[in-house]
Design a protein that fits this description.
about 290 residues; mainly alpha; MetI-like fold; 13 helices; about 70% helix
Length: about 290
Amino acid sequence: MAEPATSLAPARTQNAPAGALVATRRRRHYTVLTRQDRLLLILMVGVPLTLDVLLIWGPTVASVFFSFTNWSGIGPITGKNLVGFKNYKFLFSGYTLFWPALEHNLIWLAWLAFIATPLGMFFAVLLDREMRGTRIYQSVFFLPVVLSLVVVAFIWELQYAPNDGFINNALGLKGSRLIDWLGNPRINLFSALVATSWRHIGYIMILYLAGLKSVDPSLREAARVDGASEIQTFFNVILPVMAPINVILSILITNNSISEASLVGFGSTIAVVLLIISLGPIVLFLSRTMKSLA
């Protein structure tokens, strides 16, 4: 008696190679992103990342390389331009202008950190109370930030002019009593700091005001129920929540540098040294912030 015919299809399925099963599983893989979404993601992430690398990280790495050369900025860089650490040795031992410049940068940093920035934060806290005319005050404080540095310099040059300046006329100073606010080496640094603070305070105020608007109101209500004062609420509740804004402020405050135009190599050496100095408070603040959030 003949045996019934059997189908070989199941046997083929069972004995299918592993590669075919993997290919089948790959075909069944489901993705949420379409091709258009992937293209949009590449444009939104890739373009800013490319600009960041080209405009920020590229010049930074190039400055580190140039600091080991004596290149003047004209012509190609050859092996004769490589000088090793000679620029750094000359900077710390033979360049007499470095230490006064470093002192001025530290004064600048301390002024912005302990005077201008707290004033900007104070104005942001006041404007966060939704007082009458808040929009007008915001526009007034933020107007110097919108103006270009050339316009700001021209405005303060008119304020500080010895003969026709607004400050000397407002104080009633005439003749020998006139004060040369920008020409006197004893006070010109602080005159420049006041002009810088006029622009810096508005920038800090807008950044901090945006951060205050994003704070959950329930946190303030809970602190008020617990009997905390407004000062205690700000330092113990609001300030820790605004850690990202504080990181941005720390980076802005320590963004100080000087330049040297005669030699690109030596100027890059100065920039690298000041970059390392400015990274100190940034790294310290970030480490403390991350520990508090952990």
